[in-house]
Amino acid sequence: MEMAIRVISHDDVVQICMSTVIGRSIGYDVSAFLCRGVVVDLGFPLVARDFARYLASVHPAGALITHHHEDHGGNVELAATQGVPIGASDATLAMLREPPHLELHRRVIWGTPAPLRTPIVRFTSDALRLVPTPGHAPDHHIVWDAERETIFGGDLFLGVKVRTAHHGERPRELARSLRATAALRPRRYFDAHRGPVRNPVSALGAKAEWLDETIVAIERRIADGWSDRAIARAILGREDLAYYVSRGGMSRVTFVAQVRAEGA
Predict the structure, then answer these.
(1) Which of 76, 130, 212, 256 could form a disulfide with 141 if both were Cys (CB 3.0 to 4.6 A apart)?
(2) Which residues face 251 on adjacent strands?
């Protein structure tokens, strides 16, 4: 399978954009970032060979992992075998050591990560700090560079009106994390799937507001006895390609189901 890593410079930040032929065909890629000699996130298993060469060429001082999902921490065992010190929350490391079962579409798009078995040196940075931002995943963190007013946001943002969700996502919790991140007043924000985000404080606030309004609309229909599928169709619209690729795992109806579960 053809694989690719593109390197894009943003002044002091290097964006490492990773994709495969299959991923590009359905609009999926993911980026890690290099800043202050530290790699933020480690990409996914299907680009392991190319990413290993990249790590060997830059000799990072360490790596910080925003969360355990296979497109962010999928090459952690590779990095560990290369002697790269690893910074991540205890919860993230636990899931990297015992990865959860992956749905078929995730294995096809990103690959199946090797469990973290190599002993690691725990990495911390005085300049780059992991800040808890649960919602997209329970172990999700952003990386905050306070001196340079820069955030590496993992999957916190993704876009203002993201109408799909995966199982385990918590929309209310996500809205709180978005507001807490906006309160840091970042001047720059780098998203793992969108790259640099313009006007990040405004963008983060807009997404939090949209989530709040959407959750209220969903809750009203739940109270009126509507089904998840009917609510999704009325508020979020028809399912898109993600629904069919993921066999329903990433969908509008799952968004509604997660609002229902979170409010139970």
Answers:
(1) 130
(2) 165
Picking from 178, 158, 162, the residue whose alpha carbon sits closest to that of residue 252 is: 162
Task: Give the pLDDT score at 41.
Answer: 98
Residues 200 and 189 sit within 8 Å (Cβ to Cβ): yes
Cα distance between residue 36 and residue 164, in whole Å:
34
pLDDT for res 131: 98
Query: CA end-to-end span of the chain, whole Å?
Result: 44
Query: Which distant-in-sequence residues (6+ apart) come within 8 Å of 124 by Cβ?
Result: 87
Residues in the chain, pLDDT under 70? 1-3, 264
Strands 150-152 and 62-64: unpaired
Helix axes 171-182, 252-263, angle to 10 degrees: 90
Q: Are 58 and 11 in contact (CB under 8 A)?
A: no
The whole-model pTM stands at: 0.94
**How far apart, in whole angstroms, are the C-alpha atoms of residue 66 and residue 63?**
10
Q: What is the pLDDT of residues 102-146, one digit of tens each?
A: 888 888 889 999 999 999 999 999 999 999 999 999 999 999 999
Three-class secondary structure of residue 14 per DSSP:
strand
What separation in angstroms does the CA of 207 have from each of 175, 198, 213, 256?
8, 13, 10, 17
Per-residue confidence (pLDDT) for residue 94, from 0 to 100: 98
Distance CA 239, CA 218 (A): 16
